[in-house]
Predict the structure.
Amino acid sequence: MVETVLSVRNLEVAFLSGHGRSQVVNGISFDVNPGETLAIVGESGSGKSVTSLAITRLLDARSSEVKGQILLNGRDLTVLPEREMRKVRGGEIGMIFQEPMTSLNPVLPVGKQLSETLVLHRKMSVSEARAETVRLFDRVSIPAAATRLDDFPHQFSGGMRQRVMIAMALACRPKLLIADEPTTALDVTIQAEILQLLRQLQAEEQMSILFITHDMGVVAEIAHRTLVMFRGNLVEHGDTVDIFHEPKNNYTRTLLAAVPRLGSMTGTSEPAHFVLPFQDQQPLPPQKAETSSTRKPTTEKAPTVLEVRDLVTRFDINNGFMGRLGGRVHAVENISFNLKAGETLSVVGESGCGKSTTGRSIMRLEHPLSGEIVVDGQDLMKCSAAELRKARTKMQMIFQDPYASLNPRIRIGDAIAEPMLLHGMTNRRESKDRVAQLLREVGLLPDMMRRFPHEFSGGQRQRISIARALAVRPKLIIADEAVSALDVSVKAQVVNLMLDLQKGMNLSYLFISHDMAVVERISHRVAVMYLGEIVEIGPRASIFGNPMHPYTKRLLSAVPVPEPRERGKRPAPPIRELPSPIRPPNYIAPKREYREVSAGHICQEWDRSEWAQ
Amino acid sequence: MISFLARRIFAALPVMFLVALIAFSLLYFAPGDPAAVIAGDMAQPADIAAIRETIGLNQPFHVRLGIFLWNTFRGDLGISIFSHKPVTALIAQRLEPTLSLAVLTIIISIAVAVPLGTLAAWRARGLIDRIAMAIGILGFSVPVFVIAYLMIWFLSVKLAWFPVQGYTPLATNWSGWFYNLILPALSLSTVYIALITRITRASVIEVLSQDYIRTARSKGLSEHVVLLRHALRNAAVPIATIVGIGVALLMGGVVVTETVFAIPGLGRLLVDAILQRDYPVIQGVLILLSAIYVAVNLLVDISYAIFDPRIRN
């Protein structure tokens, strides 16, 4: 019999607060075997992260209660004295966390943050630790490792910081690595690199990994076995392939159905709903799966709602002497596209590519340097402030964070009514009826208008944001990562809602997202942005089916495939740091050449030496 | 780092110029003729005119401003109307007691408040926290002179451990200097201890909830390493800010304390000068205090850059 590395028995965790006790993990048991990766999957509030913190006893003992047994190589961690437990942390169990941006101490050099572990657990001298740190940085493929020890975290990119975190977690050759959503905050290409690195290090070190995630695609990429959690309970547990192909539990089935799968839309040109086997209590409008491949595209003869010509937005960086111009961020560089009524154009790309700035520039929330933004026949770049205010009734924006984009002290009914009243579209008395109607349209109940934002879940709040955007009857909605922060099952419902609303109101969406699988489902057309420029734009089927630009190909190949049998069949992407869009003040953007690949599918010509691999 | 320093020092110059301008305008626009004040009650109009000529009061505004700025730059702050001594000499006599008191007060405040606030944050809502917050409320609510008189009554009069009042220059006898200053510094520091403890506590609590503290704990570091190496430096920027503000406020507090403990410092020089309408002295002390504020602000800015590498660029 193989000796298990970690054995958790009847783990219960409860949080204690002034209001009493709330149980967050209800007696779960599982084992992690040597050299194995076990994934714990679940949505927010499932108790998956709390489980990992309970194992390492990082929960605050004054506000939490942990019961059950946690055996690490046969030793029960729950009864270990704190002194011994500190040797376990960092020594026998290494940990990586979600946010590489905030998980490293901003005021200490990265080398020191790693070497302090070596000095503590491996009793090295400071100079030995420094040499070992260089070796570890090399192992996680940090370029020019020896020269970077004295750099601070803010001098590294997100992917590189996560490599530092991994090097730190592996410093003392732990038997168990706990990775809590280690790739969630990263771009897909970086995520693919980090997953590849973890697989490789695991094989070399014979280490067990407890991998906590909400992303079924990532589970399929990395886990041997999977454990599904729902509201503190273990609902299903088994081999990853079995979980994906013969899920026994209803929740697991819902979760899997909601996972966007790249390539599931091949052969169609219209967007399609997610088909969800189980709905939650939300009174959703009736929906059915679209079999739209036979239908004519709805948008061919539709009028143009938005036309963007040669849009340029740059930000000055005044870091020179006495605040003189030190450089410019070329956030959006010479982009052009149009959007028709009832059509969805998705703008995809990785963080820093300028996709959000594009959306904000169109809303004139930023000040574009030049170009034309024609909304419904009116050029917003030539508008007066008053005209611009009026023009904003034609376009509205939905933002990523449903928690931060609603004012916590304003009742949601008032928040939804505000834009209508502001633009004089209704009076206070009539606005009530209109708000009630809007709430029904987004699948909420009219009685909810008296409530405050904190009384709603993330998905409900995003519905409220949508209702607020719809209040002024816009023709165009700019959705900036509008579903990215939502749990998979909620994300699927909100996407379905957006598709229904589009059909009912003939809305145009500019859908800004980094999530290729959602984009494939929701879009008519797709634009790929890289370093502020559109490198490829065209019909969705053509972009996904026949990507031309090397960057588009790279982006698509990095998306995790929620199919465990496919694991390891795709070649690992080569490591590539995203170049900076910051240029010196005298930089002149190069003139770009484009060619038409097929009808409406246009691709930028690229520098073959830059993209040669 | 050097360009950061150069930029900060450069930015302080216009502030000092503005202060000198305001100080000059104070005298220029003040009611009454300085020449008449200097000449005294018995002076003849001819005497006053002669004085006006000699000290340059007949010159136009910009010429007088230019002369004033140049003199200030050279370190010449004029002659006291009342004592007829150079203002710089008057200030020099009084500077040591005030600076001694201020520096000692700040050292005591930081030495007590930062550890206390950190401990209170580490065990928030625990016993230490409650005690620290009680001290905080007491320090805020009891006026400086009450604390000062209570300490004199108990520690100096009843127990006779410390002198009741007075000042011994540092050059004469450093232990005498310390004994004379400890009570005033203690009483003055109560309010700063309260202030800095509160800010330290709030700042450290905020830092302790950050992800990198969880990372530090997940590495197996002991709590004191987590607090001292990882938390405190991140919490330092708001603490440095409040210490800077404290030093600025301290100058006002010094006046009361110097009066209670009969210390011949700047505070009393200023109070006397205001009562006697001795404008050159008021000007001189104003410029000096402003220079101290600007210097303290500069030090605080530099400390930000030392604590936080992200501010250096």
Q: What stands out?
A: The two ends of chain B are 8 Å apart (CA to CA). The mean pLDDT of chain B is 85. Chain B touches chain A through 25 residues (CB under 8 Å).
